[in-house]
Amino acid sequence: GAVVSQHPSRVICKSGTSVKIECRSLDFQATTMFWYRQFPKQSLMLMATSNEGSKATYEQGVEKDKFLINHASLTLSTLTVTSAHPEDSSFYICSAWSQGKVIEAFFGQGTRLTVV
Amino acid sequence: GEDVEQSLFLSVREGDSSVINCTYTDSSSTYLYWYKQEPGAGLQLLTYIFSNMDMKQDQRLTVLLNKKDKHLSLRIADTQTGDSAIYFCAESENRDDKIIFGKGTRLHILP
Would you call B42 an interface residue with chain A, using a CB distance cutoff of 8 Å? Predict the structure, then answer.
């Protein structure tokens, strides 16, 4: 079945550095992928819609210069947290819709980012 | 804008039925979902329902949709300890569209 894979699953970085998170659709092509952020014991907040070959669409309140999204191919979207601060520590999840008759959005396993 | 609301906590005795309720505001919602998230794990799609349906049953799960009131419920029959998780109600206007999530209901199973 359709699989979305995220890498890394966990990352610890120092304040001020940048971190890149990858989201791959393993056996299908995804022109659109979505990036979510989940705070502890809270819901998934949509951050942005990643569009292959064009600029990402950011939700209100999400800093586009801080959370850089690049969707360079039909199977890969990347989220780069630039100049990370402790408040950026969170669980980041990507998703993509499967193709074909099955109607389901598949989610990556998530990336736990800790900024120290 | 779109908003999805659900109660944050539900406690149920093992063997009883669990009913988790959700309301949404977007009248354009076409797909309504229930996702399950266990501690430290990703999201698992439990079931979904189209907005032109009233009910969908899948084994122990029953989804009821009242489109007029924009109310969605998930009933889990014969609740087991393995059902302990956070259940998210969610909606999207179309396939390939962004999915908007509620805050999640934490289901706690009493022995």
Answer: yes
